[in-house]
Every structure is written in structure tokens, then in C-alpha cells.
């Protein structure tokens, strides 16, 4: 498989806009379907959402999906039919495994402040697992610089939270201006600039909301022009290659 570097600009994302929600989709989602843009590796959804105060997603179902939520600003309240409840804030990683089926809601309970978060979906290795929920504080580790593995299903890979996929891991980093990290080397890599502006070897400058999809591209160095926050999926398989 030849090495590829595909840049996806923030302005090119499809947008769902309602009075209470602005959702920018890196991949096909809902009414926004593009057969040429359904996933990269194992990642099917990378939604950059802003939810207005005292609104949110009412109770709705999911099944057979690993759903990871990362808050950038504000707070998001999660509640589900398995009895889990949590308030997610910047620096707190959260994962919900929908498995055999679960109902959940996600709401912004603040009377004044919007919440901005990135929600990411990857397929599980197996269908029909028991639904589960996990959250863990990683904010202090991010302050130290470098990549922090916040979610992983890769055997032997330490992470704050587990995911039901043996070929996927999510890393995050917060970079000060001039600081740099080296991306993992993997068959499939998805880099999303959640905040700030960075330079990537072989891809050039990226601004907030931009993404790069790497295929067998090897380790790349990323340096920050300004305070930045990155989300990086490392994937060692692709959809349909042993995943159900």
C-alpha cells in the first residue's frame, strides 16, 4: 500500500446547524453522505460540536459502536440507560461502549456557556458486547507535553481508558508555541487540530479544525505555532479487515 498524506481543511467539512447545535463533520454523518468520505482506517465519526446553554441531545439509542468524547470548552453531562452519569470537562477522557444497545443523553446544563467537544466513533472488534462506560482525568499529564495515550485497545498499550478494538488507540497532546511531538507510525493515522495552529512534516501548516489522514506515512514531526491541542488516532487495521 503506497504512503499517502491527505489534508482535509476545516472549511470543507459538512455542517449541521440548528438553533442549539453546530456540528462540523469530518466524515459522512446523518444527512451529509459522501460515498468517498465514510471513514479512515477504523474511524467513522469525528464531529466537532458546539451545544448552546441549557440544551443538548435528548435520550437516543446506539449499538455496536465505541464512542469517545473529548471536551475542549465548557461541560457536557452524560446520562445513560445503564445507570451511568458523568460530567465531562476539558482534560477528562470519556468512552461509552454501546455494545448490544444503550440509550443515552448528552446535555449542556450551563445557563450561560456553550460547550464545545469532539466526538469520535470507532467500530468494535466484536458486536453485542455488554454496554459500558468509562471516564478518567488526564489533564495533568497533558500539561507535561508529549503524546498522552488516552484511549487504547492495543494489547500491552497503557492508556487511561480501554476501547473494544485491538487495533486502535487515541492520543492527545497540548503544545506550547515552539514545542513539538513525533506522531506514531501506523498503517492508518488521523490527526485532528482541535485547537491552535501547527506545522506537520510533509503536510505543511494546519489550522484549527483541519485534519490529516495518513496511510503508511511513517512517523511525522508536528510543531506548534501557537498554543495547540491535537487528537491523533493510531490504527493498525481498516474497516472490513477483521472487524464486524
From TrEMBL:
Domain Pirin N-terminal residues, every copy: 12-122
Entries under PANTHER family matching the protein: QUERCETIN 2,3-DIOXYGENASE (PTHR43212)
Residues that span the membrane, as ranges: none
CDD domains: cupin_Yhhw_N (cd02910)
Protein keywords: Dioxygenase, Iron, Metal-binding, Oxidoreductase
Cofactor note: Binds 1 Fe cation per subunit.
Family designation: Belongs to the pirin family.
Keyword Iron listed: yes
Domain of life: Bacteria
Amino acids binding Fe cation: 60, 62, 104, 106
One GO MF term attached to the UniProt entry: dioxygenase activity
Keyword Ribosomal protein: no
Protein name stated in the entry: Quercetin 2,3-dioxygenase
InterPro entries in the cross-refs: Pirin (IPR012093), Pirin_N_dom (IPR003829), Quercetinase_C (IPR041602), RmlC-like_jellyroll (IPR014710), RmlC_Cupin_sf (IPR011051)
UniProt domain Quercetin 2,3-dioxygenase C-terminal cupin: residue ranges: 155-235
Cofactor or coenzyme needed: Fe cation
